[in-house]
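Slide 14.
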Amino acid sequence: MSSVGTRVFVARLAGTRVFDPLGDEVGRVRDVVVLARLTGGPRAVGLVVEVPGRRRVFLPLTRVTSIDAGQVISTGLVNMRRFEQRASETLVMGELLDRTVELLDGSGSATVEDVAMEQQRSGDWHVTKVFVRRADHRPGLLRRRGETLLVPVEQVQGLGRPTGAQGAELLLAQYDDMKAADLADVLHELGITRRLEVASALDDERLADVLEELPEDDQVAILRALELPRAADVLEAMQPDDAADLLGELPQEQVAQLLELMEPDEAKDVRRLLAYEDNTAGGLMTTEPVILGPETSIAAALAHVRRQDLNPALASLVFVARPPLETPTGRFIGVVHLQRMLREAPHESIGQIVDTDIEPVSADAPLLTVTRRLATYNLLALPVVDEQRRLLGAVSVDDVLDHLLPADWRETDDVNAGPLTTRPAARRGGLRG
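Slide 15: predicted structure.
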């Protein structure tokens, strides 16, 4: 074990690799779990470690043999059961950073920026120091940050439970490079109050991406906690199909209010999607695939599929149609595969390499038909057309999987996952007609 008296700052520990005694990497530290005590400072009892598969597990500090420069060494096997926070436990990264506390020297309030823990002779780890930034309320210094202090934990009041709204700047800075799905996991594991605080601190685009990865209950709770104008902005930043799914979980009165606050063009796509039953091609599709005219050059088409906001499934195909090129388009012609474009001269037009053998589906086609068609053609996305063969949108394989998996698949360990079933239908349709 690290030598007695070793001081470890938790914010610096986040992201550190964890290794087993043989030197194989187990995962990365994501948080530290502490317990409040009646006397003395909190006691650190374990690490939250993210292991492959985005699962977070609990590693007791009694099974940590070394916390050293850039690495944590554990002993024995790691229990792979998903970490579940108990009522008596506090997460340093998730709940203590950004918390406003009072300094007992009478100098006022401060914000927690880091927490230091030290190993005692007994082998236990205690929180001993708190790194804080003093609030600076002097006139004319609104943009200037207050001084920082490293104070003994006994000189700080307010670590036990928050007394008011808590910021999230420091926490989000630690997770800035995380993918949306990983950040969604972090939010899901926080308490409801802290989850809403962190979600509210995200910008609209980031929050939209994270909402798309959260379970439906969390999505609804976060959206309903936002002011209506902010909620409408976030819905605009989401993919239309995901926004429609989320709105389908809200009361009709609130849905109508949000749609009125959204930009008309964005609201129009969402309204169209809300009219379809959930487990149909129309209910599954997005209205924003890559749609180009047949005269477009291959070079230009490749530029379109390189868009950062495009998921890999939709980037695998370009949908070719007659003008207008916004859904519903002119007559649908066919698709151009990404692989085919990579094999052709950049100056050639995509109209020369269109695959017209892909049979599109109608908006009312059931989920089973969509699934079979994707499998038949080995596609990642499938065109959806109306009676006049105008392109309405595209169903991507990730949306199909999301509906085939159990509703709680994001919260279920792989080893305990049950059989595949479809979700109950008719979540949408309330605004039809």
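Speaker note: The radius of gyration is 26 Å.
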